């Protein structure tokens, strides 16, 4: 049987699938050609990440399709219910990239509180001529330790982020309408651990209390953070979104950054991917990455092998 990994798959995933008797195709097929390619090559399994969409048109056009797999968590680029109604298995890897995304959240937080994103732009330009000026410009750093991190969505990635925050000595609060409370176990290198319980609270109270806010929610119909929510936040709040584009009103965010209400933002995802707005890209108060939350070697290895084991258990 043939597997089309259209958005790529790790070497370990390929090896696991080949060992299970599958032929893995890693040719990048254009979106509009996916259905033809699947049919012409008798592909049974299509694996995607966030780039390729598997909608009703492809599902209807490919009667031989047995599995659609998403390397990662969110499946908003797949018509999941429709695929299942046609007898197609839909799989994903919700646990594989949690640590990688959580570490990127903290990369943005550290960058924001010490102005690294802006310093790294300006030091090459002015470091030799305006060293003292830049030193003064970036002299008002903030420590994360002792501050309150508000985690919106305390699922797997939210929990991994909470663990890192607790390890830094931060207070963690959470809002999640589906998870009333959760035990967070922080494990150390020597086998010791501590466990603390986080009780979910209202979004409004989280926005009012948090010094920093990180979003870990699926794609939404509307904004979670817009002008109204920004207004009730603390002055000088930091906001990080490594979840999904479209959950923050970017126009309202830029306005809040310009006014000083928001100290900084860290964005890995955007309303208009893959062409984010220039007002976002050029804003010196925003730390930017191009949707790379799960893009570590370790996470991709876990994603590949987990997809392989699920495929083999279903079709093997």
TrEMBL record:
Start and end residues of each D-isomer specific 2-hydroxyacid dehydrogenase NAD-binding domain: 107-293
Taxonomy, superkingdom: Bacteria
Gene3D superfamilies reported in the protein's UniProt record: NAD(P)-binding Rossmann-like Domain (3.40.50.720)
Statement: the UniProt record of this protein carries the keyword Oxidoreductase: yes
Keywords: NAD, Oxidoreductase
Domain D-isomer specific 2-hydroxyacid dehydrogenase catalytic: 8-314
InterPro entries xrefs: D-iso_2-hydroxyacid_DH_PdxB, D-isomer_2_OHA_DH_cat_dom, D-isomer_DH_NAD-bd, NAD(P)-bd_dom_sf
Family (UniProt): Belongs to the D-isomer specific 2-hydroxyacid dehydrogenase family.
Name listed for the protein in its UniProt record: D-2-hydroxyacid dehydrogenase
Phylogenetic lineage: Bacteria, Pseudomonadati, Bacteroidota, Flavobacteriia, Flavobacteriales
């Amino acid at each position: 049987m043939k597997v089309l990994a259209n958005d790529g798959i790790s070497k370990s995933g390929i090896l696991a699938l080949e060992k299970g008797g599958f032929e893995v195709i890693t040719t990048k097929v254009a979106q509009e050609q996916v259905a033809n390619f699947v049919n012409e090559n008798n592909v049974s399994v299509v694996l995607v990440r966030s780039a390729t969409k598997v909608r009703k048109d492809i599902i209807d056009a490919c009667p031989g399709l047995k599995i659609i797999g998403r390397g990662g968590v969110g499946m908003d680029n797949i018509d999941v219910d429709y695929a299942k109604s046609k007898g197609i298995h839909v799989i994903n890897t919700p646990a594989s990239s949690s640590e990688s995304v959580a570490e990127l959240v903290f990369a943005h937080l550290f960058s924001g509180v010490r102005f690294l994103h802006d310093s790294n732009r300006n030091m090459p330009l002015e470091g030799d001529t305006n060293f003292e000026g830049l030193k003064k410009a970036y002299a008002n750093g903030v420590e994360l330790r002792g501050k309150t991190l508000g985690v919106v969505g305390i699922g797997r990635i939210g929990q991994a982020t909470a663990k890192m925050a607790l390890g830094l000595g931060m207070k963690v609060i959470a809002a999640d309408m589906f998870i009333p409370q959760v035990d967070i176990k922080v494990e150390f290198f020597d086998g010791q651990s501590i466990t603390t319980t986080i009780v979910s609270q209202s979004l409004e109270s989280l926005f009012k209390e948090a010094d920093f806010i990180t979003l870990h929610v699926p794609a939404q119909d509307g904004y979670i953070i817009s002008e109204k929510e920004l207004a009730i936040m603390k002055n000088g709040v930091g906001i990080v979104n490594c979840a999904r584009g479209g959950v923050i009103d970017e126009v309202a965010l830029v306005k809040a950054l310009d006014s000083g209400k928001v100290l900084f933002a860290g964005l890995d995802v955007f309303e208009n991917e893959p062409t984010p707005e220039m007002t976002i890209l050029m804003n010196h108060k925003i730390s930017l990455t191009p949707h790379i939350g799960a893009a570590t070697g370790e996470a991709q290895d876990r994603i590949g092998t987990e997809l392989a084991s699920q495929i083999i258990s279903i079709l093997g």
